[in-house]
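User: I'm putting together notes for a lab meeting next week and I want to include a structural view of one of the chains we've been expressing. I don't have a solved structure, so I'd like a prediction I can at least talk through. The sequence is below, exactly as it appears in our construct file.
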Amino acid sequence: MVTIASARIDENGNAHSGKPGDQTGKEVCTQKFYQHKKGWDCLRFKNAQVGNDLAGFMLEICNNKHIGYDQYHRNDLFNEIKKGKLPQNIDHDISTDCSATIRSLLAISGINTPDFTTANEKAVLMATGQFEYIPNVIESTLHIGDILVTKKKGHTVMVVGSDNKVGSTSNHANSSANRFEIGATYKVTASALNVRRGPNASAHKLSKSELTKNAQAHANENGALKNGTHVTCQAIQGEWIKIPSGWICGNYLERI
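Assistant: Thanks for the context. Below is the predicted structure for the 256-residue chain, given as structure tokens.
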């Protein structure tokens, strides 16, 4: 069996003008896979671990009743994520919609995209270089973390549960997944550790003013985290982990 999750509709069965937050428990929720009348195309993460991690955050979105559906306020969730909040930590009523939810999830993993709707979602996501495109997908081929988009403008969901065999990742990715753990706390062992916008050494290096207030208290004037700083892992990509401020290299971390 395959389980999907998405932002679906507001408490009145409309696309907009409802109250913020999930009034019914079904505005943003999981459901059994169904074959959409427009058909599904699939965008599969090349790094399966990223898909698995984000499926976990998708479930956190569904479980947080402060997050509801409204197209007029579709960027509420995205804006909270960009401030450094995780979905499970949002404590006031906000809204999102189906495609803005996917964009918010990508932002958690450091994949930054322009705003998109289901009309251009496939093109925008493929331009990141992070996905494999699988047209006309069927249930028996789905993996956790797959992003499904209707063939024409309509709806998008994420697969959060599947009995199907998960796609393989490289030995490097698997070793990283075993080394790091989402939610675990680590200590910086380098004399100073740069925080970057994405999970690679060529990504933009964040200045002190671009860090969260908590990180600023433990950073040098150039924005690098000081030796001994404690950080919490939010997501994993290869040797890099995401913290609220951005991405740091895990080679300079020690688990506490």
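A couple of points you could mention at the meeting. The two ends are 38 Å apart (CA to CA). The mean pLDDT is 90.

User: Perfect, that's what I needed.
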